[in-house]
Structure formats: structure tokens, C-alpha cells
């Protein structure tokens, strides 16, 4: 293809695009399928990329500690009621965290409850997240009969 043929082809494409633009400009409300492919750009201006309100682990840790003390002070371990007790604890923590008004955050609460027999216990977790917006808080409780470790994770949804 020679330079003159390339110029003619390019000029023809530009003219056809201009004609399409003039035709669409004349119509009141063009439909996206009527637009040429290069003009089908959708701009989202209402997507928040930064959280309005952030998750503060210090506040969450205080809330978790207060709930654990409230639910477990004076409690003794019973294997039959332990699953229900853990469910009550996690639901209470999640409800309290929702009161923090964390828009667009996914909240995950995890708790482990066990009988205290002098043993050691370690709990760990892994997650892939954005360190600028996501965070976690955890707290533990122990008495002569029972131990509990609870953690709350807040991940911002983009």
C-alpha cells in the first residue's frame, strides 16, 4: 500500500466517523448501540474509591473485649452449649461493628471457644487485602474454666 492510498483510506475513515457524529448529534438521545465503537465510553462518577468512614481496630478491640467479658464472665465450659455460645458472641460482635456505620465494608467475625485446662492455644489467619483500607482487630478472654479468642476483619469493597 502506498502513502497516497494510506492517506485516502485514513481520510475516508475520518469522514465516515464525522458523518456518524453529525447524524448522532442531530438526534436527541442516541442509544449506545447506535454509537460508533470508539464513542461507547461509559464514565462512572459515583463509584467511591476511598472509604468515607474507616475501620478503627482500637475501637473494635474495645467492643470485642466488652462483649467477651459480658458473655463469658462467670461462665463454665459445656461442650453441648459451646457452639450456641460462640454463635451468640460472633453475632453480637458483628451487630456492634455494624453500628460503626462502615459503608462498603465486608465484615467477617471469627471466634474460637474452648475448655481451659492449662494448655496453650494459637490462632492465625491469612488474607490478601489492601493495607490502606482493610484491617482487623482481635481480643481474647480466659477464666478458670473457659477461653475464647475472637477476631473481626473489615475489608473495603471497591
UniProtKB/TrEMBL annotation:
Look up the record and report any one GO term of the cellular component aspect. cytoplasmic dynein complex
CDD domains assigned to the protein according to its UniProt record, in alphabetical order: DLC-like_TCTEX1D2 (cd21459)
Cited Pfam families? Tctex-1
Source superkingdom: Eukaryota
A GO term, aspect molecular function: dynein intermediate chain binding
UniProt cross-references to InterPro entries, sorted A to Z: Tctex-1-like (IPR005334), Tctex-1-like_sf (IPR038586)
> Alphabetically, which GO biological process terms does the record hold?
microtubule-based movement
The record's comment on protein family reads:
Belongs to the dynein light chain Tctex-type family.
> What protein is this chain from?
Dynein light chain
Q: What is the lineage of its organism?
A: Eukaryota, Viridiplantae, Streptophyta, Embryophyta, Marchantiophyta
